[in-house]
Specification:
2 copies of one chain form a homodimer.
Chain A (H helix, E strand, L loop, with lengths): L3 H16 L3 H17 L1 H17 L4 H7 L3 H16 L7 E6 L5 E8 L2 E5 L5 H12 L3 E5 L5 H16 L8 E3 L5 H8 L7 E4 L3 H10 L12 E5 L5 H13 L8 E7 H17 L3 E4 L1 H6 L4 E2 L2 H4 L7 E7 L2 H11 L4 E5 L3 H10 L4 E6 L6 H4 L6 E3 L7 E3 L5 E12 L3
Parallel strand pairs in A: 3-4, 3-6, 4-5, 7-8, 7-12, 8-11, 9-10, 9-11, 12-13
Antiparallel strand pairs in A: 1-2, 2-16, 14-15
Helix pairs in contact in A: 2-5, 2-7, 3-7, 5-6, 10-11
Chain lengths: 415, 415
Amino acid sequence: MTTVTSICRRASDASAQIATLTSGVKDAALEAMAGALEASADRLQEANRFDVDAAREGGTSETLIDRLTLTSSRLASMAAGLRSIAAQPDPIGEVVEGWTRPNGLSIQKMRVPLGVVAVIYEARPNVTADVAGLCLKSGNACVLRGSSIAVNSNKAIVEVLVEAATGAEVPQDAIQLIEDTSRASAVELMQAKGLVDLLVPRGGKALIESIEENGRVPFIIDGDGNCHVYVDSAADLDRATDIIVNAKTSRPSVCNAAETLLVHEEIADKWLPGALDSLGSKGVTIRGDERACQLWTDAEPATDEDWATEYLDLKLAVRVVPSLDEAIAHVNRFGTSNADAIVTEDLSAARRFVREVDSGSVFVNASTRFSDGGEFGYGAEIGISTQKLHARGPMGLRELTTQKYVVWGDGQVRA
Amino acid sequence: MTTVTSICRRASDASAQIATLTSGVKDAALEAMAGALEASADRLQEANRFDVDAAREGGTSETLIDRLTLTSSRLASMAAGLRSIAAQPDPIGEVVEGWTRPNGLSIQKMRVPLGVVAVIYEARPNVTADVAGLCLKSGNACVLRGSSIAVNSNKAIVEVLVEAATGAEVPQDAIQLIEDTSRASAVELMQAKGLVDLLVPRGGKALIESIEENGRVPFIIDGDGNCHVYVDSAADLDRATDIIVNAKTSRPSVCNAAETLLVHEEIADKWLPGALDSLGSKGVTIRGDERACQLWTDAEPATDEDWATEYLDLKLAVRVVPSLDEAIAHVNRFGTSNADAIVTEDLSAARRFVREVDSGSVFVNASTRFSDGGEFGYGAEIGISTQKLHARGPMGLRELTTQKYVVWGDGQVRA
């Protein structure tokens, strides 16, 4: 088994060549990779069965096994993801801005690849193809560090992708998997200073804490999602019900699911009981403030801890607020800058919420569940940044680039 | 004296209000601040004399005392800097991209302030006004931590600026100075996690090492500048001489000064002796490779250490290279991603250098000394980033922002 550092070094050595691949070469490689996933379905599903059988024997929950399983439709959507990445404009060489100075210097701010992008992630094997595709299109070498539960699936996927990519003029070391899934390998990756230009840790609290403690390479935190839906006094109430039901129940285990519902007191009596009935009929249990508990007797009293909790489950905290100001203050106090929504027909209220809520994605009259690279049209996503530097919110191709200033002159010197 | 943490907390508390100031308010405040600097010249120069006298008594070098001194023309240029920042377009609220999804969601990627920006810097008091102006215009609170040698000057400047700014509706805590210039105060600032959104350390190796060890807040390194000028076989040789003389001698102590000259072997015999004469007449001493030493007998032999050294002095390392490839490889091996230049009339050579040199700013036929926020037209600069995440090269107003996705819908929910 190759050490993490030597994998990173090979990626770093290959990065200059990957950076100069043309869009034509990269898109042809992505198409070949998509085709290869489809053509290798049997091989990939066989490898996946090893992982699934081992997980089941090890007593893994069926929810996790479901995420791990490579069905035909999931393979098809991995291939579709790669084709969708190929269809995106190439971010590399894009001139973001350009201007000419009084002395005649022409300055261009141009997107260039970061170099080596590493991602640590959990069970779902589709992430392997998404990350490989996004990194290739953005001219970066990628180092993948999946979880032990999916190691056979990931190995097979990477073999198939690399075979297709190298057949299409992409360097061998552009896509590499760290097969060692020990904690030590993750720490070695976090410390590969000078070899990794960006590390994205996609995982739970333990991983984030480990990277905050051990990280020596640049990283972007893909953190918690304590998302809010605020139903304003001027809300369209049917929309409000649809949005909170969707935001809470369409997939409660993900980071863009809603965790707290804030309701303006003027419409609480009229709307809240029915809305909570709809949520209850989907199996959602409620932790409410005093007013919410009065209006819906099945609710349990909420504590401050509830406002700060990402349940990732069919639970919802509910608070009745006296004003828009109070709603904004609540979101800014307890939110995690991931995704927060207002439901209102009042333009001024919408504009204030948009301006004053400090969040990566702010939605007006739409579900927080749209905070997602695919839903934003990025083909796939490398993660959702909950930090402010470099990238914030769903990260697509552009977030995998840095820039260089290119300055064209005619012999100018500085006075 | 107030503790660093409480200063940062006040900045953080004020940041939401600063973020929503309109361009009109901010520009009027910047104009008032510029006017106040001019009107307070006597008071500022008196405070500055305390610092200068103390520095001279303490045996500080005249070079440093020169940088510390607030002459009338420096005060005028500080005021001009603030007016130039006011004249820049407001980065806040700028929609960088926007598009509509097939489901009708309108997505806007909008620039918003970071929140609290802190800067640790050295002697020059003009940085105080530059940073305060850039942070205000970009909607951020700023925390300034200057050096002990300039503490009276900085105090006076901040008092004048705050007085003018608060008179123009800017919150009191928008511009704050840490008067405690101990090492402990710098470390406390580096560790003010959750209160500082960006820290820019502008200083030498010791500061960078300290922040790499102690930093718990997001930071951007303003690092070394081992800058190169490569004179290609197809160079206009007069331009080449002008550019290397300017890049080396116009201000040798700064990070965008050239440290190594690379010369294509085909023109070395013809051009190098004369060019080195010109440099020698300006007091530059040469460390050369074998060929350079043959061509110019006053040169001392260079070692690998010379290629890696930022002299910040009237010294230049000179190497004769057999090809453009070798020149690019040398820059990528020894450079610090700050600023590197090619002198050539050959378009293909220029395009390859631009594409393949991994640097924050790549110049064609211009001096590396232009790698500077003011020279790029940014009014002033917060520093020069030598890292790849968030910002690279000279940082102006846009680099002091993050983004939020603003998504407008009509009740959309996710399938």
